[in-house]
Amino acid sequence: MKQISLLKKSRFTAYFIILIVAFLTMINTSSVYADGGVGYKGIYINNKGVKTWYNVHDVLSWGFNECDSIYKFKKDGATNPAPSFDGVNFGVFNQTDVLEIAGFAVVGWTDNTDFVAGKLQYKVWKEGNSEPTTWNELGIGNYDYPCNGAHQVVCSSGNDRLVGVNNQSINIKPTEAGTYNFKVKALGRMNYCNGSFNPNDGPEYNATFTVVAPDYYRSVGNVTWSSPSNWEQSTDGGSTYGPATSAPSSGAHQVVVQSADTLTINSAATTPSSANFIINGTLNLASGGSVTTAPIYGVSSTLQYSGLASLPSTEWPMNVQSGAGYPNNVIISGNSTVTVNLNNISGATAVTEALYMGGDLTVENGSTFRLNIGLGISSDLYGSKAFFVAGDIYNNGILDMNAGSHLAFSCNDYINTGQTTLASNAKGGDLYITGNFTNNGSTTSVEMNGRAFILEGNANQTIGGTAPFSVGTGSTPFELKGWLIVAKTGGVVTLTHDIFVDGEGTDNGNTNSGGGAITVNGNNSSTPTILDLSGLNVKVSDTNLKSTIVCQNNGFIRTNPETTISVLGVYNSDDAISNIAFDQTTPGTTNKVGTLILNRTGSDAVLNNSNDFIVTSRLQILQGKLNSSADIRLDSLAVGTLSSTDGSTAALQVKDLIFTKATAGLMNSAQFYKNGRSLTITGKVRTLVHFEKTAAWNFVSFPYAATVTKMDGTTAVIGDDYSLGWYDPAARATNISGWKSSTDVPMTSMKGYIINKKTPLEDLYFDSSVQGGDEMFNSTRTLNLTYETAEHDVNAGWNFVSHPLSANGTPTLSGGVFAYGYNASQDAYKLYYYQYNPGYTYGSGAIKPFDAIFVKTPDADSVNVSYALSSPQGMLRRAAAVTNSPEEIIQLNLVVNNVAYETLLRVNANATTDADKLYDAPYNTPWKDTTPRIYTLIKGKMYALNSFPANSTIPVGIKVPTAGDFSFTWDNQATAYNAILTDKLTGTTVDMAANSSYDFNTTDAGDLNTRFEINVNAKVPSKVELEKNNSDYKISVSEGKILIDELNEPSYISVVDVTGKIVESRKINLGHAEFTIGQSGVYLLQISNNSGVQQLKVFVK
């Protein structure tokens, strides 16, 4: 007969396969075994998960060699005989153990027209009960009518044999405890449809098994695996519990650790199945402790390691994010070390969240949690979040990463009071945070090792704590040696400490620094992502590193007037994405920054800016280019600077460069120092004037023709929105008011104006068409002055003009030229009488951009205005020292309501006690009649500066708004003169050298022009002193004389007084010279020869 193969479906289609194997041993064409067409039979038993074939009918003469290694159920004469079913005791079973019939098979012989069928009869009953009279059946094919629907599958073993198999699984284990009988009988039949062979049925075989009541354990306190103490036990399926009589063992059906209880295991424990090993409290694996199954952890449970451990492990396996083995909270305690080893794994799914926990990780003091993750993995998986903490990390001990770790870890909040160390790799080994980072350790307790903090999610987050941010050994405090990356889909990340983020890799920046040391990436979310740097000093990158700052995809930084940002580094290709973008949530508030410093070297080093921002203190570009496609506004106290250092690449490109001027107080104005560098303005220069109130006149002027625009962009209308006035020198020359109404539209460049803002109160823009090459950005500029003659000199030569530069400037005033700046906070004028005025500073009394100033000149002339810088550049200082010594000045102040109003008295040998056009400056009357006044009087006229020779008496006048108590104060500088203040009403005299103030009372308000005077008398010289001698000559003082020795070449020696007048000058050939000075004062000794000029101050008292 030939071998045939036919596969059909039976009524057990969804659950099992019927396999029929035919085996034919040919002696001749008509001979067969006498047993007919049905051979031996087998039953497949699943005993607690272990499946085994048992023989239930053995036909000794059937010499079948199994054709499939699965179906080995012949008892005798087989290569691998199966055990007999008869007499087997299958063991003891608890409630959850498995005992099943897993299959039944029949061996037969037939040709392709015949069929095999069979059935297994079985019954199960408890000892002591009567045997059931009926059988349960498991059939193969159609036993009663095998010609109709019998099932056959053929496999070959050299001859044709058929094996019929039913793989149905049938649970035969009762739930009631007891010993059970298990009886089977195997039947078989062949049919070739034209007749039937005799059936070949097996005998009845008997087996037994026992079902026991399971042991349930639950904790009622802290427990161990080796003691019954604090365990309760149940033997009725968990219905009732009582005190345990034994500790849990391998036979325990269920173990439950209840909430608030701890199970400590310090040996190898054989634990129940995962479904019945339930931890609602704490599982503590001490030294030597282990389990054989992964527990089900409750939502408030804890997995504790108090001994050495390596993860993943049975109790905490890999790639489990739910169900058995998924811990909630984890604690590392007892000075133990737990190491996570996730190396040589591949595939994004396997790597991402490879070790997962649902709650908080706590590393206690003295313990270590070490991440050895990412060795040998594919580089495209670097940075994957392999260790994932769904809750918070509390590190009170050591949490560190192996130096070679390329994978990352993630958590919600990270609270550090111990030591945290990230991996020192060129890529990977980062920390992802969706919550807050809090460092309550020390400045050395978080070591970044050139890796990144990456903040994710859309919630608001904070980076702070009681300790500043991390530093490395010997590094600068507050240094984050790595990257700070904010990669969110909305929300605000707030920093609470000053920070230095260097973006430095592991090789000191030689190759693997770069990118955004601070990166704010909003991932194009509709909700902006914001890094809040308000109130902080922030340094980005370092001089030898390539990293920069990157704000992108709706990511911004939020700053305030107390924020300082310094962007350093060297140029590289990452500068193409270098971008700083300011938060526009509340324009005018969230986009204000105190100081922004750019110092990136290289000809192509660029920091881009894509939205408007306001600088309140300093914009300082030392190296590199700030390229802004938006507007930059300098607030009224802000200073912008392009470096003046030779070779600097400092440059600025901006849309609109906006200056701010305040009309209140000291009328401060923004400043910009171009210093000859590249300034490109693609829009225009604008000045935003901030008005304190309506219906008040304010001094303004512009070094460009200005059109006036409202804040909403519409044109401001003169007469409706504001009024203008100008000053007519010709009118003043005729002794009438010079103020006139103006209709100038636009306002004239360099012309002084007064402006009155009408209702409503709002700021105005004064716009220009000025570009970066305009003269206003020069370091020096000339004002041309006119001179109007007048009957009285006090009315002649007045000009009302603009400060012409973009920065505070020093006017070079010659003798007889006086400048007056207006102080709106006091309604008083500040007098400058030449560039070396000791009272002049670049501070509150400075002549500022967009100031309108009065200049009085004795003739038609011009005034040069220039600025100077100091270090740091853009910070302002006094004018340079002069070759002649300071003058003797008495600044006399009238103090009313804690406000000082000043007048100046100057001792000048060339002046007279009458009005001197070149030396005396007229007093400018305040705008308000109620403003207090102080001045000196020359023939009844008021002066702000009164110059006179020694031995003079000077009347002092004041005006007070009310009767009351007032004070005079003065700087005790006039050491060369006996200055006496006399109160003629009370008869009081005050030695001004010995005192610094005088209090008085007046019962009258208004002008007091006859009560006070100052007598200034020259002292008789009694002492001559020298300042420290740094010259090349021997200079000494003896008996009131100046002695000069060691003159080794012809020299001109001069003694010059404070006015610049030469008191004595002689040519000395060699050797020795003597000079006698007959009047007290401060003098300058000047020695000139071929070796140069040397000077020394001389004090005569």
Record keyword descriptors for this entry.
1101 residues, mainly beta, Coagulation Factor XIII, Chain A, domain 1, 13-stranded mixed β-sheet, 2 helices, 94 strands, 1% helix, elongated
What's a concise summary of this model?
This protein is mainly β and 1101 residues long. Among the domains are: 38-211, Coagulation Factor XIII, Chain A, domain 1, CATH 2.70.50; 216-255, no CATH class; 887-1018; 1024-1100, Immunoglobulin-like (Sandwich), CATH 2.60.40. Strand 88 and strand 89 (1041-1047) form a beta hairpin.
Q: Tell me how many strands there are.
A: 94
Please identify the structural class as seen in this structure.
mainly beta
Strand content: 35-45%
Summarize model confidence as the mean pLDDT.
84
The gyration radius over C-alpha positions equals 51 Å
CATH architecture annotation name of the domain at 38-211:
Distorted Sandwich
Instruction: Give the CATH class of the domain at 38-211.
Output: Mainly Beta
**Unreliable segments of 5+ consecutive residues:** 1-36, 470-477, 838-844, 869-886
- Main sheet characteristics: 13 strands, parallel
Number of helices: 2
CATH topology heading of the domain at 38-211: Coagulation Factor XIII, Chain A, domain 1
Helix content percent band: under 10%
Overall geometry comes to elongated
Query: Termini distance?
Result: 145 Å
Task: Please list the strands of the largest sheet in the order they lie side by side.
Answer: 13-17-20-23-25-28-31-34-37-40-43-46-49
